[in-house]
Amino acid sequence: MKILIQLLITSVLLSPLQLLAQTPEEQGLSIMQEAKKRNTGFGDTKVEMEMILRNKNGDESRRKMHQRTLEILDDGDKSLSIFDNPRDVKGTAFLSFSHPVDPDDQWLYLPALKRVKRIASNNKSGPFMGSEFAFEDLASQEVEKYSYKYLRDEPVDSANCFVVEAYPAYEHSGYTRVILWIDQNTYYTVKTEYYDRKNSLLKTQLFKNYQLYLDKFWRPDETHMQNNQNGKSTQLIFSHYQFNNGFTDRDFDKNTLKRAR
Amino acid sequence: MQRLLFLVLMCVSCKLSAWEISGYAGVESLGFVHNPIDGSQHNHYLSGVVEADFYHDWDDGRQSFTFVPYFRFSQHDNRRTHFDIRELTWLKASEQWEIRVGIRKLFWGVTESQHLVDIINQRDIVENFDGEDKLGQPMINFALIQDWGTLDFFLLTGFRERTFSGKDGRMRPFPEIDVGNARYEKHGIDKHMAYALRWSHTVGDWDLGLSHFYGTNREPTLLAEADGSGQLRIIPYYEMIHQTAIDVQATTDSWLWKLEAMVRSGQGKTYFAATGGIEYSFYNVQNSGMDIGIVAEYLYDSRGQSQQTIFQDDIMTALRFGFNDVQSTEILAGVIFDRTNNAKFYNIEASRRLGDSWKIEVEARFFSGTQKKDPAYLFRHDDHIRAELSYHF
């Protein structure tokens, strides 16, 4: 009995102690691992995306695409993105096999030539289709792609958040660091700040209207990327999220890329 | 009866609404810098083009039907005015195979300067001198998709002759190619049938292709001969050939390593040709968002300096600029240099979107230092600038 009480006391005492004993780096990592864990098991998704690019004068330009994603449990996810708009690039498709540490494998399909081109995946920091999103912002976010540091707790609007700093562990990133505000209840990202290679604030990204799918997985309806240096912004709107599509590896191969619509 | 009609109409309209329609229409200006060799040729040609894409899929996307008609109307050159069905295909895809029946276009290969292994479709040379436009090819294609790669079987049913400029057109020998008197090694069904097999696979950083083709050659031998009245005629002659080819690309970091090689028998002596090189890209240069790519390729043909090939010992270098701006501005500028006879072929291509639906493309091509023995000598007066403005829907 004495032993039992002692055990109880130690365990009660130990858990906060353990937290205290964690370094900020370990805390940051465990928050991101928990976020990943909560998003594990989604299987596959299908979503329609619209990008609205705005310059300083408020001129708008729109892109439409749809994307299929397959969760790969022991590797990075596979995704297939197909462009619908602007019309001159309609049918252009992009296949990506992401990897936690190694460079991603990427192929581009050019419908006018019927040509599949394997492309180098070093293009991380370049803009995606003239938008304020860089390729690395849209890539599959694997835990291993960054190292982390927990900074503080801080509310965003009414949500209590963990503030975690992430440092790209992959080559060719355009960022020295990225600061993430992660909701303490749901572990989804509410806000992200991107710091350029000179370590000055480059972009601020806000995520809006998270919806719960399959009672487990949170996805935003919208995300807004503001460039703090050039005044341009890009709004990305997600619609028609579908889960449980029954996708297999076969839906993400070069043969499918050639006939993707 | 009325009810039946109503039901039929309902069905037709619901079917129609499931069709996806896209395409483009454009106007083109094709201007030549020098006066022509032949008096019947012109210095400037206006033309119009339209291509539509009708697409419908069902069976959860596993079956589809595609129809792509194409028409170009060209001022002066009646051979360039042409209609083609680029695609008219039914496709069915399953977990381990895909079958396609109908008229199709497809592409094999990895290099940029020329497309040696890309043999299934006939080139639509009147459309563009670069050979990247192709005529629709009737075929039955069965693809077996396995862990060890994809094995494609092709039954190519129906030969398409290469298109060439007419008497009033440019980019042609003098006299013009006598398309109406084309000759064939085989006749009847043998002329029309061709067979091809291709294995392709991705292993890590490597994308590999191995192919064999047997049938009527897509690339005619040009025979110069005198007709009854002693006039010179140039006749296209289509032989039966065997062609075995490989195409390989290795993708590592910012480097693409490329090789295409082939052996062809049946067209004169058996010969070997290859194109190989690299493409290296600098991304987001100086944080401008711009990409700059460097392309360098060597082009070899074992027939050497002959009337059959322009690229027998040539080096191609090019710079590719991708601005990654809202208008998707791109520029490709390059030169192909003949190491044997010092001839040079310059090529600049640029394109940019205007607003949401319009696109402008400009191509400039110049030949210099071509010598009489080189087939490129035919084009010594044909430096040209092509501009096309198109509306995409």
How does this structure look, described?
The complex is a heterodimer of chains A (about 260) and B (about 400). By secondary structure, chain A is α+β, with helices and mostly antiparallel strands. Chain A contains 4 helices and 13 strands. Chain A has helices at about 1-20, 25-40, 135-140, 255-260; strands at about 45-55, 60-70, 80-85, 95, 105-110, 115-120, 145-155, 160-170, 175-185, 190-195, 200-215, 215-225, 235-245. In chain A, a hairpin with a 2-residue loop joins strand 7 and strand 8. With about 400 residues, chain B is mainly beta. In chain B, the strands form 2 sheets. Chain B has an 18-stranded antiparallel beta barrel. A 3-stranded mixed beta sheet of chain B has the order 8-12-11, with no helix packed on it. In chain B, a hairpin with an 8-residue loop joins strand 15 (about 270-280) and strand 16 (about 290-300). The chains are: A alpha+beta (about 260), B mainly beta (about 400).
Task: Describe, in short, the structure shown.
With 261 residues, chain A is of the alpha+beta class.
Biggest sheet of chain A, strands in spatial order?
A: 6-5-4-3-2-1-13-12-11-10-9-8-7
Annotation, overall tally of beta strands of chain B = 21
Largest sheet of chain B: 18 strands, antiparallel, barrel
Note the total helix count of chain B: 2
Shape estimate of chain B: globular
The biggest sheet of chain A, with number of strands, parallel, antiparallel or mixed sense and barrel status, is:
13 strands, antiparallel
N- and C-termini, Cα separation of chain A: 68 Å
Structural class of chain B: mainly beta
Q: Structural class of the helices, strands and pairings of chain A?
A: alpha+beta
Number of strands of chain A: 13
- CA radius of gyration of chain A is 20 Å
- Strand percentage of chain A lies at 35-45%
Q: Greatest chain-chain interface?
A: A-B, 41 and 48 residues
Mean pLDDT of chain B: 93
| Helix percent band of chain B | under 10%
